[in-house]
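Troubleshooting log. The previous structure file for this entry was overwritten by mistake, so regenerating from the original sequence record. Sequence copied from the archived sheet and checked twice against the printout by T.R.
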Amino acid sequence: MKLVFIKGKRKSKSPLGAIATLIGTTIGAGILGIPYVVAKSGLLYGLFLIIFIGVIILFVNLFFGEIVLRTKGNHQVPGYAEKYTGKFGKFFIVLSFIIGVYGAVIAYTIKSGEFLMYVFNGSNSFPYSLAFFAVMSVVIYFGIRAVEHSELVLVGSFILVILIVFFLGLKSVDLSNFDLVHPKYLFLPYGVILFAFLATGSIPEMKEQLTHYRKKIKNAIILGTIVPIIVYLAFAIVVVGITGKDTTTGAIEGLANVIKNPTVIKGAFIFGILAMATSFIALGRALKEMYMFDFGFKKFHSYLFTVMIPALLFLLLYFTGNSSFINILGIAGAISGGIAGAIIVWMYIRAKRLGDRQPEFSIKLNKPFAWFIILVFIIGVILKLLEVFGVLRF
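Regenerated output below.
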C-alpha cells in the first residue's frame, strides 16, 4: 500500500524498471486477503469486483500520471493536491494517508503474528504480533535504510513464492468449490480489494525513473496496473478452487493442508512476513517524516504519534475481539483509498485547466465518467463508515 508517499529512488531508469516499481508497489500483503473475500462473496462476483476496481484504479493512476506531467517540478501527492484543490484537498489527502498507514500497520501486525505462529508452531498469535510490532518500532526509530530499500526485492520474492504456490496448487483445484454469488457478503470484498490496488504514490517516482522516456509513462502505468489485476484474478481462482469455503483470511494457512511441500509453505509464510515488515517500516518512516516536516513535530513526538496510536488501537481491537485482518484491510482500503481516489480524480479535472506544462500524454476528459468514479469512492467511504459505527451490517 503506497497511496501518498514513496521514499527513496530506485536505481533503474528504464521503462521496465518503472513498470516493475508500480507492480512491486501494488502487489503486497493485500493480496493475501483477496481469496477469502472472494470465497465469501462468491467467485463470479469476486472476480468481477477485482476487474471493476482494477479498471477504476487504472484510470485513477492514468489521471494522476497526467497530473504529474502537467505540473512543473517534483512533488508528492499532497503537493499536487494543494496546487489543484487547495488546503481542503491537501487536508483530506493527508488524512487518508494517516488512516491508511495506521490501518496497514495494524493489519500487518495481526497477520505477521499469525504467520509467525505457524512458522514456530505456536498456539497463540498475540505474543508474536507484539514481538513483530516491537521490532518494527525499533527499526522505525533508528532508521535502517537498507531494510526499507529492500522492499521491492522482498516483495518480488514474495510474489515469486506466491506464483510457485499457484502452480503447485493448480492440480488440486476443485470446480465444486466455485460458488457464483453470495448476496450476504456483497460489500465485504470492496475495501480489501481496493487496499490491494493502492499504489498511486509510486507514480511521481516513475516520472523520475522515466526522465528520458516521458512518452512511455502512459504504457508503463497501463502495464503496471494490468499485471496486478491478472495476478489477483489467478491467485483468487486457484486458492478458492483449492480451499473453497475453508479459505483462510491469509490464504496461505488454508493451503498448507493441501500443498504437501512444507518448504514452499514455510517459505511463503517467511516471505509474507518480510514483505509486510518492509512495508510497515517504509510506511512508518514516511508517516514519521510527515509529522516532522509537515506538522513541525519534534523527532521523538513524531515517532510516538507514528507507533503509539496504532499500538493502542491494536491492543484495543485485540482485547475487544475485533482484531480481524480482513476487517482492518477493508476499513483502510475503503476509507483511505476512497478519500484519496476521489481527491485525485477531482485534481485531474482541475489540472486540465490549471496545469502549467504540456503533458506527454493526455486522457480525454469525460466529466460524467470522472464524477462516476468519485461517486463510487464516496459511496464506498460512506457505507464503510456506517458499517464501522454499526448503523449497517454487511
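Residues 300 and 321 are 31 Å apart (CA to CA). Archived copy saved in two places this time.
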